[in-house]
Amino acid sequence: MKVFREMMGVSYWVVEDPSEISTLINTESRKEWETKIAKSGNPRSLRAWMRGLQTREWGLKTLGLQEIKISELVMNSVNAKTGYSFKEALEERKRSFESDLRRSGMAISPLIVRAEDRQLMDGYCRYHVLQDRGVTMTFAYVGTRPTGRRRGLGIKSIRHLVSQSLDLNGVDGDRGVNAGRGRLPRGGRTCQRYQVWRAGLSSFS
Questions:
Q1: What's the whole-model pTM score?
Q2: What whole-number distance in Å separates Cα of residue 111 and Cα of residue 123?
Q3: Measured between alpha carbons, how far is 6 from 108 in angstroms, rounded to an integer?
Q4: pLDDT higher for 40 or 151?
Q5: What confidence tens digit (pLDDT) does each residue in 54-89 have?
Q6: 3-state SS of 72-118?
Q7: CB neighbours (10 Å) of residue 118?
Q8: Would you state the pLDDT for residue 202?
């Protein structure tokens, strides 16, 4: 549900519930980004962003405009085949948007910002209009990468952990891991312990 908010003389329609923000970002905003990818001559950064979109945790935040970074790659994007220029399109949209704000005082949507580097991912027109008006604070939907994700262990890490485990059980870890083309010694309680230990490792992969 959208609610009405005001900040520094600017009106906003905002969504406050994190799950509703996530739905909004992954439906309406995603469609807009897909359209931009089709128009832009340099969609790589947007595609990378969209690949991890559904895993992000979203929240409504108040940010200083000076905290938010704009992408030079986006600002300078052009499509030679279609003649599309982001900067030229932005200037046209700014004039139209500023005119609508003066005439009707309409409420705007929050910006969309990537949490880890405060990069602006959507709302370049709104950002520049707010900047031109001397606005220093704004509402933003901020997407944070999930924490506590477990990554797969590399072969060197696995060898080291196996070696440590065998040493604790009275087996030469280096010989057990590295001898015989990396095969562990067969049989015995140590191998049984290793199999249990190895099964526990699967939770990290």
A1: 0.68
A2: 5
A3: 10
A4: 40
A5: 899 999 999 999 999 998 888 888 888 888 898 999
A6: HHHHCCEECCCCEEHHHHHHHHHHHHHHHHHHHCCCECCEEEECCCC
A7: 15
A8: 40
HSE, side-chain direction, 13 A CA sphere, residue 34: 9
10-16 contacts at long range (C-beta below 8 A, 24 or more positions apart): 10/108, 10/130, 10/133, 10/135, 10/138, 11/105, 11/106, 11/107, 11/108, 12/107, 12/108, 12/109, 12/110, 12/139, 13/107, 13/108, 13/109, 14/60, 14/109, 14/110, 14/139, 15/60, 15/141, 16/60
Tokens 């509703």 belong to which residue?
A: 20
For residues 200 and 171, the answer to whether their CB atoms sit within 8 Å is no
**Amino acid identity, position 196:** V
How many CB atoms are located within 10 Å of the residue 153 CB?
Answer: 14
Q: Which amino acid is at 91?
A: E
